[in-house]
């Protein structure tokens, strides 16, 4: 069960980089680096994988971690829940909720950080940092503690206090910055450079996405096929890009054919760079938003993303769409998920409920489509 990792490849110019060394972005063009594996049809059979214990690390052949032992906090293998009362409400009988709130630290960010910190440790990196809306910072603090790393997190001052407290409780250093995650990133950059901290920012290192892609694999493990529609609350886009990468790997493994779900990017009306670019058919990148509005869905307040072109290509190639949701509707969506299903729903998950409602009423989602909503975080991370 050895990793089949062969190299890192730039998502933009395809230049190859040696995975045995620490890398951030492409040395040629600054694009995000993606892990590439020696994948042949049947290299790993689905039966073999299904016979293993469920969890984030069920497919070590397609994981970048080289060591045999992977310390874990129990991340992954989150439930894919039937939407019962919400399914009736939205007129979507085949609606399912992938409940990522059940990860350690209460969000899907655990998946990426588990891999990024494990690789940092393998590569001899001891001090890491990142700007975060909150959930990624909490996950970095937890997995940094697990792997014995020194963690520095820069967050917008609007980041909920419970998350800031959680990061500190796990031994990491928190600095608050006025503005959005982009301002936090700008404040962190010179400090990180002068202190030699290794950045774990979204897509500025190659391994977080390898953790996120497992969400795509798990949909297949649970359904025995891919869903028709996936609604994803999108900020930096690692979840969306990661799942799209997983589907491509699954096809090369011979598990599926060329069929793909229609992918839906869900953002907020106060910060919707990908929705704007999608509407203009700008497949090569999105214009950053100048004044991103504050929102309860703080993970979606990302004015510009390094992987914008990868998200846009995923939307184009999947015949998907992108939709911006008003604050009142996303809060209503979270309430509906909580009150009709008993799920601890984040505002980001609520945005996907609202998106499903709107796309169903326009007829973009068919009544019988197998539709998956991602609840990416836990409601308790938002309390004040
Ligand atoms: C709960 C939640 N959902 C969604 C997102 C957006 O995720 P991504 O950056 O993978 O697009 C975030 C990011 O912080 C988040 O915390
Ligand atoms: Zn490049």
Topology:
Elements: E1 5-10, E2 16-17, E3 33-37, H1 46-50, E4 80-82, H2 84-90, E5 95-99, H3 109-122, E6 127-131, H4 135-147, E7 150-156, H5 161-169, E8 173-177, H6 181-195, E9 198-199, H7 208-212, H8 214-223, E10 229-233, H9 238-252, E11 262-268, H10 273-279, H11 308-317, E12 321-325, H12 327-341, H13 347-361, E13 371-375
Parallel strand pairs: 5-13, 6-7, 6-9, 7-8, 10-11, 10-13, 11-12
Antiparallel strand pairs: 1-2, 1-3, 4-5
Any overview of this molecule?
The protein is of the alpha/beta class and about 375 residues long. The chain has three domains: about 5-60, no CATH class; about 80-105 and about 205-380, Rossmann fold, CATH 3.40.50; about 110-200, Rossmann fold (3-Layer(aba) Sandwich). Helices cover about 35% and strands about 15% of the residues. It has helices at about 45-50, 85-90, 110-120, 135-145, 160-170, 180-195, 210, 215-225, 240-250, 275-280, 310-315, 325-340, 345-360; strands at about 5-10, 15, 35, 80, 95-100, 125-130, 150-155, 175, 200, 230-235, 260-270, 320-325, 370-375. It has a six-stranded mixed β-sheet, sandwiched between helices. Strands 8-7-6-9 form a four-stranded parallel β-sheet, sandwiched between helices. A three-stranded antiparallel β-sheet has the order 2-1-3, with no helix packed on it. Helix 4 (about 135-145) packs parallel to helix 5 (about 160-170) and helix 12 (about 325-340) crosses helix 13. Bound molecules: pyridoxal-5'-phosphate and zinc ion.
